[in-house]
Records
---
Amino acid sequence: MTSISKRKLGFARERDLARLFWRKGFACIRGPASGAKAKRIIYPDLVAMKNGKIFVIEVKTREKRETIYIERLKIERLIEFSKRAGGQAFLAVKYMDGSGWRFIPIEKLETTPAGNYRLTPETVAREGLTLNDLASIASNTVSLDKFIRI
Amino acid sequence: MTSISKRKLGFARERDLARLFWRKGFACIRGPASGAKAKRIIYPDLVAMKNGKIFVIEVKTREKRETIYIERLKIERLIEFSKRAGGQAFLAVKYMDGSGWRFIPIEKLETTPAGNYRLTPETVAREGLTLNDLASIASNTVSLDKFIRI
């Protein structure tokens, strides 16, 4: 796949996720496509909000179950944005083999020896929250602490 | 001015406002440029967040001090988004004659006989909050109720 069609595919999947959030009663906004001008400010892929709860989200999709590597700067920016907002940062992961979206609190990422971040399929399976979990947290029926035990 | 360069100018001004929010310690995200695909979901121009407070914003700039008309659907969507998020909706207005940004709670808009909305320069001057006001509200040092008395 060319890098342009890969990018388009990425955007289409972000849009799909935004629609799922919308259907669950969230307000959801996608950041502008990153260009030179937009890059001066930090933007996450997606921000989903409900009942005053703010979920700051970086989206990652993979064709098969493999370890996902994320550069340090990206995670640091996600944390910075989320801290400013008073929200919680997640990686939204979808393996395109039929499994659904899973939301991994960034506290659960592992660091690599070079100082970047990595997320294994095992961590996704063990620590990943579902969209319904996020909706429950937003409705205050479940606390996020139930999921994040570090 | 052509409609394309007008649009570009509008985006540039939204970016400027996003930067101002950022400098005041907010997290801020601009919606994607509206195209056919993006339009299926409701997006405000800008969402600014701080300390768990969510400000949902439609941006309007004018070259001179004149009454601004906004179609009903746009305001209804802004309200819907803000309700889902658990936030507060504002119109951000800037007259390009040297005055700064003013934020008008949408509760302050007047309706037109045709069911749309209108915002006069007088209302902007009387009811408009400053960026510092919004920062104070987000830091809980001032309540929004101080500003919204309907």
Note: The helical segments of chain B are 3-23, 72-85, 121-127, 131-138.
---
Amino acid sequence: MDPAKLLDILGNENRRKIIQLLANRPCYVSEISGRLGVGPKAIISHLNLLEQAGLIEYSVDEQRRKYFNIANNMRLEVLVSPYSYTVALHDIALDREKKGEPPAAEEKEASAREESSFFFLKLNSRLQELKTRQEELAQMQQRLQVEYTELMDRCLESIEELAKNSVECELLFELLKSETTLAALCYNLRLHPSIINANLLDLSERGFIEYSIKNNQHYWKLCETGVENK
Amino acid sequence: MDPAKLLDILGNENRRKIIQLLANRPCYVSEISGRLGVGPKAIISHLNLLEQAGLIEYSVDEQRRKYFNIANNMRLEVLVSPYSYTVALHDIALDREKKGEPPAAEEKEASAREESSFFFLKLNSRLQELKTRQEELAQMQQRLQVEYTELMDRCLESIEELAKNSVECELLFELLKSETTLAALCYNLRLHPSIINANLLDLSERGFIEYSIKNNQHYWKLCETGVENK
């Protein structure tokens, strides 16, 4: 799924509530409508949208009632900071058809040896461990982003000291974010290629930047280790 | 910020584009309007909304032009899976006022010893390391979510074997997700307290669940290690 599409979907409060409900248990239209206090027509149109996006699916029970459930497993991550805005959507493939396969040897043995009730509680312990691990990872990511932003601040101070003029300032800032081409720099900085090129060459002579060629294009980037090798 | 508010904000394509632009560099209204091909009135109303939410702020230059920039540093994480829907917003406090402080001893020494240009390229190397680390963490989180969902699948199979009836099934499923109160169970399952209570007591006697008391409320949860201690 396109991450922009998911953000469009999640931008609506009622759709978020529907997803929340379905993540709890499969539901049918009038159930959702009752819970949310929203007419069934509106609910159906939200459900259609969610289904088209592949986010939900349904199964039909004996009373021909459509039960909707979440079809997908994904993680959306949005980072907003003074120096970056990134949206990443990780679709996590679920190989749920495996269910029918015989359990792994280890597991089979375990089931035979232990009471199934004990086995269930063991699964649950593992589940709680995973939750803790998930929280730890989230905290690590947070610390990383703090360090990233602080480092960016220091890089910008450093750039201001080094740059001869404001164009160099902007170029170094762009290259700090990622390697890039002349064309992209012209577009982003709204400056004529000749101006940018002259500054790139100067920076390159002073040992700050270098280029590599990929797919017949010049990609400029900051030099990797240092000036002293020049 | 309330994560729902951020999702509302990000649900609009033009607002996403504005954030994208400002994460690149501070911009003023007519610049944004030109880039997006959207009238200045609409841009101003989006900017007001973003500013009220604390996501952006502005500074005024000599020509009295308002330059808007991203004021915040945060990470939004949305997990959607058949068994869970969680939205987490991590506000990452930036202690940017520190800037004025003298640099740490190590850093001071480094600046003195090395050319400032070399120092800048070293900062950049560290920045690239952080980016790599960020990607690694994202991958770890992904593997974790796969394992989580597979484990949930197995727990559900296990529940179906263990439960005497469908109410028990639903109760064990709810408790798998988190510990909870009788009242919350009644609300979520839409069942009379007497039915739920009878089933909870039965499950508790069979050693599956137990309660603890917090803030004068009974919280039910799955037993931690196993049945064999009973």
Note: Chain A touches chain B through 94 residues (CB under 8 Å).
